[in-house]
Amino acid sequence: MSRPSLEVADIFRGHGPAWRRANAGHVSLGQLKVMSAIESCRTAALGGHVARCENETCAHTIIAYNSCRNRHCPKCQGAAAKDWLAAREADLLPVPYFHVVFTLPAAIADIAYQNKAVIYDLLFKASAETVTTIATDPKHLGARVGITSVLHTWGSAMTHHPHVHMIVPGGGISLDGERWVTCRPGFFLPVRVLSRLFRRLFLERLLAAHQDNRLSFFGDHAALTDPRAFAAYLAPLRRAEWVVYAKRPFGGPQAVLAYLSRYTHRVAIANSRLVACDRAGVTFRWKDYRAEGRDRQKVMTLATAEFIRRFLIHVLPSGFHRIRHYGLLASGTRADNIARARRLLDASTALPEAADTRPAETEDPKPLSHPCPCCGGRMIIIETFQRGCSPQTRPAAAPAAIRIDTS
Fold it and tell me: Is the dihedral of CA 27, 29, 35, 39 positive or negative?
């Protein structure tokens, strides 16, 4: 795949230093680290290697710089998603899968930005408990289900819009563990019931977090430190409808993998959506979900400083897990639960294991997983160089270095 003509890294390198100076004292260490990682990604600052085609008549040579591997970097998510999907493929069951989305109201999103770790965690836990509780109710499904949840904190225009995407098998193991319970065709659980329970569970836990002094407020929300002010702030939310919706079920396990490959490791904006960065600001493509058809695809221009600000508000707290598993897919019991589910489904043949596309562990010179772009031959590493160093070997014709993700 060719390199996009414009990348977030280009914007950060060109405008990041001035933005940091203008916002000194208002940028977190985590945000500064993300900026630095993206600016250095696949440059000599991180070191790299030189690879050459084994075919002597070709001998095509490239310089490949290392990736930063930061989870917020638009360039580093492809390889990370591929590895994650390979590990998850063995967990898929031969049943339809459903996609359920839980969204926080705007009033909660406003205070979530000031309390990311606490409120995002509550979003995960309350939404998972909602699904598992309703699913185990005999009036609905009467079964234990498995959940994979992915946190997104952005809308298409990079505004703060925290929501969880859930992928759930269309059924579960009966409460006595003796059979697989299949949900109705095309229907998982009633979204109105999910919405009401989600609202109650989340607000209960949010109020408890406030009582335990685990929330911080500043700026326009500083007054919410007072318990009575906070209770008054939450009062309208107890009557409002919270957005929970279920999309049409996937066609099968492979469709689930295709979907997950687009969602699990997504960042606030992909480089492919960037159009231009000039005196007017940063122009990018976005989707207006309030519009229909062709009118949904739009182009927006933001002042460069505002673009950088919007990108960085989606930096997650250090160590925060944005992909989590619950119910039958919880880490400690996942393997046993999947095996039991397959037996109950009479699926004795497991899904084929994903091919290992990582470079093979061989003696030097090491082969790369991608072929020579000129002749299709095998590329091997002939030199590695450390951070901040330059390679000794250079391509014969000295073309621009090809950037390849080798991490």
Answer: positive
Query: For residue 322, with 0-12 CB atoms within 10 Å meaning exposed, 13-18 middle and 19 or more buried, which class applies?
Result: middle
71 Cβ contact partners less than 8 Å away, ≥ 6 residues apart = 77, 80, 265, 267, 316, 322
- Cis bond before residue 190 (omega within 30° of 0): no
Q: Mind spelling out the 3-state secondary structure of 222-277? A: HHHHCHHHHHHHHHHHHCCCCCEEECCCCCCHHHHHHHHHHHCCCCCCCHHHEEEE
Output the CA torsion sign for 230, 231, 232, 233: positive
Give the integer Cα–Cα distance in Å for 239 and 356. Answer: 51
Domain residues of the chain, as ranges?
8-72+361-385, 91-268+318-344
For 34, which DSSP code? Answer: H
Per the structure block, which two tokens stand in for 205? 């836990």
3-state secondary structure of 360: coil
Q: Which among 403, 336, 376 has a CA at the least distance from the CA of 75?
A: 403
Residues 72 and 31: beta-carbon distance below 8 Å: no
H/E element holding 341? Answer: helix 334-344
- Contact (CB, 8 A) for 7 and 293: no
Q: What value does the mean pLDDT take over residues 23-43?
A: 94
172, 146 Cβ separation under 8 angstroms:
yes
- The reported pTM is 0.84
- Which residues lie below 8 Å from residue 404, measured CB to CB, with a gap of 6+? 62, 64, 370
Q: What is the CA radius of gyration of the chain?
A: 24
Average pLDDT of the residues in 167-176: 93
Place of tokens 């598993």: 325
List of long-range contacts for 373-376, beta carbons under 8 Å, 24+ apart: 373/60, 373/402, 374/53, 374/58, 374/60, 375/53, 375/55, 375/57, 375/58, 375/60
CB 205, CB 126: distance < 8 Å:
yes
In this structure, are residues 130 and 198 in contact, taking their beta carbons and an 8 Å threshold? Answer: yes
Amino acid in position 219: G
- Residue 30 DSSP symbol: H
pLDDT tens per residue, range 344-371: 998 544 444 443 433 333 344 555 657 8
Mean pLDDT score, 365-394: 80
Q: Is the dihedral of CA 341, 343, 348, 353 positive or negative?
A: positive
Tell me, letter by letter, the H, E, C secondary structure of 9-29.
HHHHHHHHHHHHHHCCCCCCH
